[in-house]
Structures
1.
Amino acid sequence: MALIVQKFGGTSVGDPERMRAVADHVARTVRRGNQVVVVISAMGKETDDLLRMATEVARVRPGREMDMLITAGERKATALLGMALHDRSVPAASFTGSQAGFITDTTHTNAKIVEVRPTRLRQALEAGQVPVVGGAQGVSTDGDVTFLGRGGSDTTAVAIAHALEADICELYTDVTGVFTTDPRVVADARRIDRISFDELLEMTANGCPKPAMRSVEYARTHGVDLHVRSAFTWEQGTLVTKEDSDMEQAIISAVTHDTEEAKITITGVEDRPGVAGKLFRALAEQQVNVDVIVQNTSAAGHTDISFTVPKEDAVRAGEVTSGLTDEMGASGAVVDDGIARVSVIGAGMKTHPGVAATVFETLAANEINIEMISTSAIRISCVVREAQIEHAVQCLHAAFRLDEGPAYVD
Amino acid sequence: MALIVQKFGGTSVGDPERMRAVADHVARTVRRGNQVVVVISAMGKETDDLLRMATEVARVRPGREMDMLITAGERKATALLGMALHDRSVPAASFTGSQAGFITDTTHTNAKIVEVRPTRLRQALEAGQVPVVGGAQGVSTDGDVTFLGRGGSDTTAVAIAHALEADICELYTDVTGVFTTDPRVVADARRIDRISFDELLEMTANGCPKPAMRSVEYARTHGVDLHVRSAFTWEQGTLVTKEDSDMEQAIISAVTHDTEEAKITITGVEDRPGVAGKLFRALAEQQVNVDVIVQNTSAAGHTDISFTVPKEDAVRAGEVTSGLTDEMGASGAVVDDGIARVSVIGAGMKTHPGVAATVFETLAANEINIEMISTSAIRISCVVREAQIEHAVQCLHAAFRLDEGPAYVD
């Protein structure tokens, strides 16, 4: 008998018919002799509907009230799935995040988990019930309802799997797994059978939308095995585990892209210690989330610093940067929101420097100019013109023959 | 400075525009120097929508899950009104029934309040905030979410007013107050300025739909003054208080009617001790809610027993009764769902026997046959044919000249 956490996203439970299909699947899993804990998101576009309603009612929308509002969506979904399970003679009980023991900090709309005390979930399992837990929610140390933020249901599921020492955490979604690249961009994108936490983390940090990056971080830290799979076809999806010997050779796993960032360049900065520190401290104080940072080679005592930020932060970041040009002895600041980033990700890359060369050569051969480069042990990212991003993804996916299987490099 | 509890029903907050209008009213009340606690129902038809969705998802619908589902509606409404108040620079904080301190028994879908511990509401008031509380909900002694049943928001409001020793509990609704009779039946029905708990309790027990009877009972027991008024016109409505010297003369206050019951008659029962007890014990065991009971005068050792039950219980009650006819030595049982009940209600009635005579004479003069009679100290009810009920209401309302003001009798 295995203990399985099954998480279902909003589209997976988008209407009563989908809710019944999910209940059927949970019931099948129980009848095969497993213990199951379900984590569920709000149905379909409900969270969007609630947010829209809030804008219709108030211009000032305190986080505490937003959290009370939004978590109502998951509450409904848990109750409905609980009933649907009873209807299939599977004993079940719904739990809010608070009842499930999710204690969070007091950062409303984006709370962090402080502790998980799954006493009631354990009791329910011992009583032979399937606990159905509202995703992305908890109760703060002040006793208020909190929301873990968009995509927080994945994190809830992983945290429960960790707290209950579950055998596997299954994340059911509207795609059949993790792909070598975006199937909308590359027709022969291939579903990956197995991937390491590190690689998936790099992928989600570089444009792969699911599962939520935060949940992958949590799973990686605590070693919770994931299974990313479809709630529509129910076929086997992608297993996410620690690197094993099998993986070591699979040097390139995926190509991701991200079009949600803008590039800011501050030119002619005096090349002296403390300058960059001043800039990024000022940005941090304005809550601007800086991603890639590149400082170009210094020439004649001056340098250019470029960095990327989410597009919604670009105006604010541009203002902060412009306000510092004098102090930094810089000649100017430029905001460019016509960029995009392509990333090649693979666990074995660190020992194979030839990969970087292949990336740069492939882009050059396709007349795609590289504006910034950043790398990690398992990733190479290039900032290119946004207009060329799909072409960049396609030619890199083809260069590493990812449609045929994981790319091995000598 | 007064402490005022303001309760708003579903139609009062049916859409974002209504929600803003309610926020404006609460803000005005605060700016006049009052402390306010708001109790709010789910928006518009949301509770109906949730119930419908449950039937689409499951045939078996456990009460625990239904309560989790339904209370999501009030949760949304509290958060939205909380935001709308912030938007008007009125500090506010939303609270679930559990956070507001409503401890209930474990009877799901119709829980009873065990205790109210309004610690967090007191703290919010002391901090200068308007607490916005989800109506009709609490947490059971087992730690599960509970629903107090339809109309439970009125009870929540009265219970909070009692626990916080509020000066008044204002129940805002879609009518302008309590009327001498149903304005849809009698065009010149008049709004009552002031009425006693006892009278309003008899009215709600005899067909007057608002406020919920249970909340009137609670208010009567604990002496919580009510003000039933409109959330659309905001005009002064009906004050509900203890009887005072003013009221003693206002002998007839209202005429109500109820078409939701059926009459069951068991004929030719042996007139010996214990027979009626056996019947009504059997009905109670089947959860049949018996209302008026009349046993006709015994003739030759046999008697007829008639009683009314809610129409939805009529079939079950008929079966129970038929099953007992042999044992009771009865000749048969008849279910009649073509009846209705008209009631004349007035606090001073007990000392004025002429009122009953006027009721019977008026109905006779209008050729309306009386099938059953039941009375209390402040009420006379007559069961008549359902087809004649509106005519009965109209002629009694006219007979006591309720359109002109409270009827005084010599």
2.
Amino acid sequence: MSKQIEVSSETSAGTSNEKKEDFSQLWSYVDQNETKFVDQLVRLVSQPSISAQNIGLKECAELVRSMMEKLGIKTQLISVPNAPDVVYGELRSSEKRARTLVIYNHYDVQPVEPLSEWKTDPFKPEVVDGKLFGRGSGDDKGELVARFCAIETLLDNGSSIRPNIRWVVEGEEETGSTHFHDFVLKNKSLLRGDGCLWEGGDRSTKGTPEIHLGTKGLVYIEFKVKVGEKDQHSMYGPIAPNPAWRLVNLLKTIRDDKGKILIQGFYDDVAKPTPQEKKFLRNNEYNLKELREALKIDYLIQGKNDLETITNLLYNPTANIAGFGSGYVGEGSKTIVPKEAFVKMDYRLVANMRAKDILAKIKRHVRNHGFTDVQLISHSLEDPAKTPVESEIAQTLIRCTKLVTGKRPNVWPTSPGTGPLSLFTDKLKLKTAMGLGVSYPGSGFHAPNEHIRVEDYKQAIKQLICLFRLF
Amino acid sequence: MSKQIEVSSETSAGTSNEKKEDFSQLWSYVDQNETKFVDQLVRLVSQPSISAQNIGLKECAELVRSMMEKLGIKTQLISVPNAPDVVYGELRSSEKRARTLVIYNHYDVQPVEPLSEWKTDPFKPEVVDGKLFGRGSGDDKGELVARFCAIETLLDNGSSIRPNIRWVVEGEEETGSTHFHDFVLKNKSLLRGDGCLWEGGDRSTKGTPEIHLGTKGLVYIEFKVKVGEKDQHSMYGPIAPNPAWRLVNLLKTIRDDKGKILIQGFYDDVAKPTPQEKKFLRNNEYNLKELREALKIDYLIQGKNDLETITNLLYNPTANIAGFGSGYVGEGSKTIVPKEAFVKMDYRLVANMRAKDILAKIKRHVRNHGFTDVQLISHSLEDPAKTPVESEIAQTLIRCTKLVTGKRPNVWPTSPGTGPLSLFTDKLKLKTAMGLGVSYPGSGFHAPNEHIRVEDYKQAIKQLICLFRLF
């Protein structure tokens, strides 16, 4: 803890001119080698790796491995039963008493559908107007390759990497890291360290880098009703059961018109923001109008003021409908009673909710409301996670951003997103932070036309160079 | 009306031996000429005429016309803007004070896909085990040619056709008769008459011919909510509006758990079955267990007993969800807030509801419940139609079945399905009935391997012979 506070005060005191000199040389190298670094990302994005559809995962793992080996990282592919291989790498520091930085990334990406909405081929990345388009250009291949490029810059310029590095790159993050849990628990010794750099690291609408110190949890489930072997002519409507109506009837018991979740006990363990967290929220930059525009959404669900809206985003759990499918969804009309219906839902959990507890409460709700004909499929469970701002990793990330941008980053006590972070914070007792990433609010993670700005990519590499020298 | 009652009592009194004699001679002719009559149907089925794909319609219209001309029917092809030609034919009776029978058929057929599921070529009709296979063998070419064969039998045997005949054969029934409405309204004078024989006429599972005296109406609409230009990462769930939840919130105001429709005034004009209709329902043959098995559905929504269940099927209006689409509907999971959601609904209307009135009530409901963000797209409107069982056309059909089978047909005051029947009953003031058809529950209209039984075909021709002598 004393060590962490030392680093913290170092940050407050600013950095010496000497260090600034060193970095500006390294940073120039980044600017000069933009094309090379973009090409490296293009190469990785060109390799499809869709975990939800089991496409290209083996090839992508091999490619990641070979890119790491080129940097002198010792790698192994660790097979995980019923899941894609984990790429694991180690780089030993030449310095005495070096600390150990654990790094987490994932090499899988989201499905690309609807393909018709992409303006470029999702797996043939293209730079258009200073933006690199492609599935995974940000999430998470862009972040991974930016880290590679930072190491390459240091090595090419004869600078050493100060910490030991233990790097884990998994292949099923986009389907909920279902088997990564087991992997981590079985390989705790590979993942010991003094802090962890997670994936992520966005920018504000003004371009200020952001650091997130927590994630929400997730319960992803599917409700399914099947009433027969074929769709019926809808003239049988008065006597044929309708599975879509059945799901509507269930859904209306789950959430009211105002978004309040009606599942008994759902809010029992919800933690409100602490006074310190409230202070961060007040000091951070954000612009909801710009966020809304970047999301290309007609309106946001507002609180009393912007601070309340942003607090809701971070501290409210949800019961989201991610997909609803039933019957005829083509052009025009077709008169049928569908044979089946399903709804995919993700419930985002905040500290201190527990995924297993919420899943049990959902199951009890369905049973207690008499929906015995509704099948519940559980796709993934994830607990929320949080790391204190005083930790070494958090302080170092803040410092790196200050060095490159001259300003302090926005520090968020949690992210609205989810990842298997609790595995690291809870099971490995690793202080874990997200920052120094490549994206901005318009990046469109998970959506068609995912992209990053090349300027942000270079800025991330520069900050990561500092991290590998300062941790 | 007095005339109708006269016919009705004639039916009740049975027919004279002399008439029975006449018919049995004509019926023998049908049996003796089975091959010829089957060949005529083969010829028409061999001509593809798929309105949804604009295949062979002109050729088929010409063929129908030439078949009618051979029977001495004066024909014309009437062009309809943006639609296939209507074949129109007239046959004048030699009798004084002859009544006029209007006949409706269509010469177009459904697409044949999936072709791989056909055991024969859909346009090379074959008789296998007493069944004639081919697209349109039943719907509606089988019914049309059976009517030709009845006329041919009468002419070949020196019997006259008693009524004047006005025959309309359209070419876009399978795509919703979209332009046929205009045709009818512009050509009312061509379609005046004392009764109309519609297409249709099925058999019960026990082989008893069925007569239907009405159709349900239909309001087919789509609700659509769009909240932005792209799907969002579902981490934005607390502040991003969810269009699928929006539709769930609307739908729950439309219909309760038990299927009762909550739109104000929806049931205002619903006609309950009359005592006479109830009597028919009690006397008709039906087997709900066999129906459920044929539909391959797990269960039916039951009334207190089978009679109530079948009454519900015919007399209950519906608010059916025919399709619901939003967000991610592929395998596994994807964490998004969808950019849009839509639900396709067909509302089946019973006598005396009116489609325009119900559409207006739905619009008012959406507005009054504050769903100003929900777009309502109207796909089709059709009024219900009903012809009283006392009408001359209904009584004559019943009588024809009794003469040929020795038993009374199942008489259904309405069908659970929908068609442009109200055009004839309401706009042309024509009493219109469906019966004396060629199909049975296994015929598979619209499906691969559509077929009819040759015995049913001959039985239909025999009944139609009676119709052309008795109307």
